[in-house]
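Please fill in the sequence for the structure shown.

STRUCTURE ENCODING:
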């Protein structure tokens, strides 16, 4: 099923009197269940495109269809609602609350949804999600007591606690060494293949992109090319 369809998306930033075109006409379809890497050099427009895909920002022109709904023109409030219900986010810098345990970090988005879970249900749902990312024995650890890879897995659990169909990750391994990067990427592969979560990650690192089933490369605000990952690529850990 078609999850995302972009038609001629542009984004131009206004810097005083000067218009800065950043996305120059992006058309793209992503099916449910894909694991996609958006690649490209620094400044090519990856984060700008990610912010539009993730409903953090709106395009200057073009159409954005998400699960059959055209959302390019919706209000900031409607975008926030969509984000809370349908979209999970992971960032390079984890963005965990420092003085808060893993389980409390993961439970946080539950406070803003409409389910009105009891404290016990909240805790058990967050614990279940942490177990899913392999951290069942780290529930009460604070971020400073966890490795970088573990912190990113807490962030992944938090991103998925409201069961969104799609997870966006902007340079998710940018702050990790190669071994812990591998641990996070394998987690993405499992969430994608076993739980059917669509994952769209931005990376400038070809080795990270090798974990995706589909690679889309951006250059100067346009899609430059596309490739399916080869088998050897997908194993990903050749030195
Ligand atoms: P990438 O993530 O591929 O490195 P970005 O999407 O962050 O690229 O940025 C693409 C271009 O858009 C850069 O030249 C950047 O300076 C410009 N840009 C990004 N955000 C803004 C903004 N809020 N205002 C003006 N220019 C911006
Ligand atoms: Mg970026």
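FILLED IN BY: designer on duty
SEQUENCE:
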């Amino acid at each position: 099923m078609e999850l995302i369809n972009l038609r001629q998306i542009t984004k131009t930033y206004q810097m005083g009197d000067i218009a800065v075109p950043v996305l120059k006409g992006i058309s793209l379809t992503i099916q449910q269940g894909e694991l996609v890497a958006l690649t490209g050099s620094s400044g090519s427009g990856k984060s700008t495109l990610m912010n539009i895909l993730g409903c953090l920002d709106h395009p200057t022109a073009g159409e954005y269809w998400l699960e059959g709904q055209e959302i390019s023109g919706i209000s900031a409030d409607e975008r926030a609602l969509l984000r809370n219900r349908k979209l999970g986010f992971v960032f390079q810098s984890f963005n965990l609350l420092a003085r808060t345990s893993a389980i409390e970090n993961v439970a946080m988005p539950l406070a803003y949804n409409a389910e009105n879970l009891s404290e016990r249900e909240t805790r058990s749902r967050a614990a279940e999600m942490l177990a899913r990312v392999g951290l069942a024995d780290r529930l009460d650890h604070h971020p400073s007591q966890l490795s970088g890879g573990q912190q990113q897995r807490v962030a992944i659990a938090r991103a998925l606690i409201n069961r969104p169909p799609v997870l966006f990750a902007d340079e998710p391994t940018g702050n990790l060494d190669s071994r812990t990067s591998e641990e996070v990427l394998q987690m993405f592969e499992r969430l994608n293949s076993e739980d059917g979560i669509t994952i769209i990650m931005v990376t400038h690192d070809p080795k990270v992109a090798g974990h995706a089933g589909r690679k889309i490369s951006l250059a100067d605000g346009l899609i430059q090319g596309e490739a399916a990952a080869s088998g050897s690529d997908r194993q990903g850990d050749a030195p």
